[in-house]
Write a structure and sequence with these properties.
The complex is a heterodimer. Chain A is mainly α. Helix content of chain A is 72%, strand content 0%. Chain A has two domains: 1-88, Rna Polymerase Sigma Factor, Chain: A, CATH 1.10.1740; 90-184, Winged helix-like DNA-binding domain superfamily/Winged helix DNA-binding domain (Arc Repressor Mutant, subunit A, Orthogonal Bundle), CATH 1.10.10.10. The radius of gyration of chain A is 18 Å and the shape is globular. The termini of chain B are far apart. Classes of the chains: A mainly alpha, B mainly alpha.
Chain lengths: 184, 123
């Protein structure tokens, strides 16, 4: 049973409280996905808002049992991100990858922040399909089957994307190996 | 250490690095914007429903104009209802038992009768 099915049906009938609950349930993960897919945070916010508009518009026609709601919603979010990436001039993506390479400062907090920025920059520089696969499997907690469904590819293709993405990331973050992490 | 061991270490290190990136906080303004969009979409849905009703009313008006131009809708509707009642009344009360005329039986004869029977055609 889809845990969101009842809420979606209520949203379709115009129930605002259900809309707020559904939003609270999915917005943080959708935003995390969009923010890591799009370098500009305000653009990521707009992509998430567009995904919700599509949800509000289509909720009345939602058929429970046809597809898992969460899978559909993440797929919509990802497609909104792809749309925006397609519209961007290619140069800006490269800029985004280059933005973050500050030297780590002596302060531990700053060091962690710098580390985060470097990891995010490395993620941002990945090809978009590899980045999406890493986002879904590492940050959204999706299993391989669900992630493949969201991306509209086979599980084998997803595994291949993940392997290539992880290999590229390992290469780009090689220099961080010995720095250690405050989180450990 | 073996190559496999190194690869596992690398994978574990990468997992730790990825986990070190915090999830972004959700801005309250974005939540407000999304719920405002919900209100807007719902308002539009209501307007569309009202417009659909108006479209039906317009179609009815056009049909009435085609039957009885310039008359209010009730006039062709009333005429149609009256015609329907008259038709139904005739169907219910008109006599359907039409009596046979007397000479109707005279032409009845057996087809296998002998040929000397005059079938009334003077043959």
């Amino acid at each position: 049973m889809d845990p969101d099915a009842d809420l979606v049906l209520r949203v379709g009938r115009g129930d605002r409280a259900a809309a707020a609950e559904l939003m609270a349930r999915h917005l943080p993960k959708m935003l995390a996905l969009a923010r890591r897919m799009l370098p500009d945070p305000s653009e990521a916010d707009d992509a998430v808002q567009d995904a919700f508009i599509q949800l509000w518009t289509h909720a009345a026609r939602w058929e429970p049992g046809r597809a898992k709601f969460g899978t559909w919603l993440y797929r919509v979010t990802l497609n909104k991100c792809y749309d925006r990436l397609r519209r961007r001039p290619t140069g800006r993506l490269e800029e985004a990858a280059e933005v973050a390479d500050p030297a780590p400062g002596p302060d531990a907090g700053l060091q962690n922040a710098a580390l985060t920025v470097q990891i995010e920059a490395a993620l941002a520089a990945l090809p978009e399909r590899q980045r999406a696969a890493i986002q879904l499997c590492h940050y959204q907690g999706c299993g391989n089957i669900e992630a493949a469904e969201i991306l509209g590819i086979s599980v084998e293709a997803l595994e291949s994307l993940l392997a290539r993405g992880r290999r590229t990331l390992r290469g780009r973050l090689e220099h961080l190996k010995d720095e250690g992490l405050e989180h450990d | 250490m073996t190559d496999d061991g190194n690869m596992e270490d690398d994978a574990a290190r990468l997992d730790r690095l990825l986990a070190a990136v915090p999830a972004p906080a959700v801005p309250a303004a974005l939540e407000r914007r999304i719920l405002a969009e919900f209100d807007r979409v719902r308002r539009h849905a209501n307007i569309d429903a009202v417009q659909a009703r108006w479209t039906f009313a317009k179609a009815l008006r056009r049909a009435a104009d085609a039957v009885w131009p310039g008359a209010p809708v009730w006039a062709p509707a009333g005429a149609f209802a009256l015609a329907f009642l008259i038709g139904t009344g005739i169907a219910a009360f008109a006599p359907f038992d039409i009596p046979q005329t007397d000479d109707a039986g005279a032409s009845v004869f057996a087809l296998d009768a002998s040929p000397d029977v005059d079938a009334g055609q003077g043959i």
